Write the structure tokens for this entry.
Amino acid sequence: MSDILHRILATKKEEVQLAKASVSQSTLEELAQASLTDANLKTRGFIHAIEQKIALGQAGVIAEIKQASPSRGILRNPFYPNLIAQSYAEHGAACLSVLTDEQYFKGCTAFLKEARNACHLPVIRKDFMVDPYQIYEARAMGADAILLIVSALSDQQLQEFESLAMQLHMDVLVEVHGAEELQRALLLKSPLLGINNRDLKTFEVSLQNTIDLLSDIPKEKRIVTESGILAKKDVDFMREHQVHAFLVGEAFMRAENPGQALEALFF
Ligand SMILES: O=P(O)(O)OC[C@@H](O)[C@@H](O)c1c[nH]c2ccccc12
């Protein structure tokens, strides 16, 4: 129980209990429902945006907005989520990923709202979901998609959280690291399957991790390779294996102009 993922999950459970004491779940449920008919908040199709890019023969890039990470420390300072979002949108990103975890990634709800309001791209709330409360919260803040990390959840939780997200019109990125997790992910409905090249327990990164799982994945799934994509050779390596959707953070966060860095890497 001492690895980083378990530590984050323990913190997250405490945070959710505190949040519930300040905003009740029923209030959040109402806000989440109301968001679905609010012109500014109603969902933008996350998977659709990725598929559109790929249909044009381009990369489907989920461009991440994160100030820091437990493995890399501070990545960007000063940090203006609205400007980063605009830059990504101008330079061909399909979607945004915004870290909302405060303690480990220096994120927050406001960053997601600012990023989303600054452009027309769909946004995934990047956080550690451990309770349905956070899924209502995600929709109430305007998220178009959520992340479900298979290693953090039971099969029953995965199914419950996925179906709740879908009821709230959100897409779901199901994240796996290894072969056993993949088999559990394949029990779910979402077509969007993220393969994390970073082991969330040890922080080790290996791009080969994506390739090793490919042969076990049905072709109906849209595979997103996540983490450790830093250079053109990494992108080429994925393309050689017919992987066309990417989740990239660090490489862009360290660049002076994140959108230009995206364009240079992918287009
Ligand atoms: O910064 P990178 O190496 O490009 O990685 C981005 C993204 O894959 C990574 O932030 C991530 C993937 N899955 C996560 C789960 C939680 C927090 C973060 C992540």
About this structure: The CA atoms of residues 119 and 136 lie 23 Å apart. The chain has a mean pLDDT of 98. DSSP finds twelve helices and ten strands in the chain. The longest helix spans residues 4-22.
